[in-house]
Amino acid sequence: MKALIIDDERIARQELRRLLAAHPEIEIAGEARGGEEALPLISQFAPDVLFLDVRMPGMSGFDLLQRLDDVPQVIFTTAYDEYALKAFEVSALDYLVKPVAPARLAAALAKLRPPAGRSRMEQVFVRDGERCWLVRVADIFLLESEGNYTRVYFANQRPLLPRSLAALQERLDPAAFFRAGRRHVINLKWVERVEPGAAGNLLVILRGGTTVEMSRRQSARFREALSL
Amino acid sequence: MGGWGAYSAIGLWTAVLENGWRPSVVIGYILFFAYSIALTHMLRSVIQRRHWISLPLPRVLVRLAAASIAIGAVQAILVVGVYTAIEGRLGVWSEPSSIVYLFLGVSFVAAIWAILYLAITTMRHTHEVRRHEMQMKEALTNAELRALEAQLDPHFLFNCLNSIRGMISEDPAQAQDMVTRLANILRYNLQKDRSHTVPLAGELEVVSDYLALESIRFEDRLRVHLELDDAVRQRTVPPMMLQTLVENAIKHGLDENPSGADLFIRARFDGNALRVEVENTGSLTEPRRDSTQIGLANARERLRLLYGEYASLQLTSRGEDRVAVTILIPATA
Fold first, then answer.
1. N or C: which end of chain B has fewer CB within 10 A?
2. pTM for this structure?
3. Which residues in chain A are closer than 8 Å to B155, comparing Cβ atoms?
4. pLDDT tens per residue across span B182-198
């Protein structure tokens, strides 16, 4: 697995490298001293995992994640058990406190998912006020457009992401995410049943009970796609 | 006691001068002295139990008058009774006006006694209350000062331990030095019984240990400049205040200039006052972190509690790309 180490202190990066030497399955693709330096490295190497310091001068770890369209798996490293990490509600992440205990590192590495074909967006970082989520795209059942923002539905959360629905959909797997109408994109894997609507369109009932009304045009497309 | 003693003695003296030594007169005056003392003692316990000193003045005056009249009446009856019992006749008391004079006289003395007693008790009480208030205020100020004292940033502590862990294999001698410096800082921080001010020299030692460790962590990104007038080293400062200002300066300096920031620490006399300045690369337009705001507000409050309005803390812009915090501490402390 390709990894990137992001920490503003050289000695801290060096120390993590030394600890990771015991784990040959992790290949360190590069190091960055902060968010600014990490951005080009992330697009260049498409790492599977980031070892990310939370508190860094300039662009913090969270600031960096917000700038990423597609967030790789993240293992946060922090000097102190911060409230910021407790703000994570649904966490597809782990974090290590510095100095890092080798056993703790091994446990965090064991939780990593094997690298998938990284052509499609896998997770997204959402910050809504004080709360943060690293959401796996597969857990999102509905995306709802609100102007230039998109409301992301997963678990029992529905935070707002500062990106347009069109921009988001571009990055999503078309086999899984279907445009239900002008304002909604649904995750087909979450569809429980489909009912005929009043105006010749379809009503999609998702697992968990959310009902989305499809536009007539998209209903026709949906029927077409299913019959195929 | 003295009052009644003097009253009885004067009474006895005049009686002896008029009539010569007679046992009945002497016994009468000794008894008078004894029951007068007993009566005022009773009054004293009533005043204490009923908390007369906390009553409004008009109500105290009414009670005082009533008590004096009651004591006067009892004394008059006793004086006449004892005299009649010893002498076997009313004698001088057969004249009602003399009884009235006796009654008024002893009532007056009882009233004077009660007023003096109340005045003295009230004065003592006020003094006690004031002393207690002062003690409370001092305890509160102490607690406030302790609460405002900055604690070591846990981020610094654990980052530093992490650097040491890394340094152990990279440069063992350096790692040893780092442990010693960190120990100094921790010892200084864990002193719970230190006073509210410490010599600047001691604070500077800890700050220089801190800076040495930060320089190892941040390497060439942190450039420290010290401009210290040696004469100021013996002046006292609140502990951990300079340390906190330095921490903030490093944080802001590097936040705005991740590639490298300058830090200036200056201490000199400004007239009689001690002037300490911590300046860093940066600008005031950048929003200050909440923690910094609180840190500065706390430092300001500590200065106010310790030195009153004569001390100050100011955050100012210096030219295009510098920010400075200046504290002024008067000579009095």
1. N
2. 0.70
3. 55, 79-80
4. 999 999 988 866 778 88
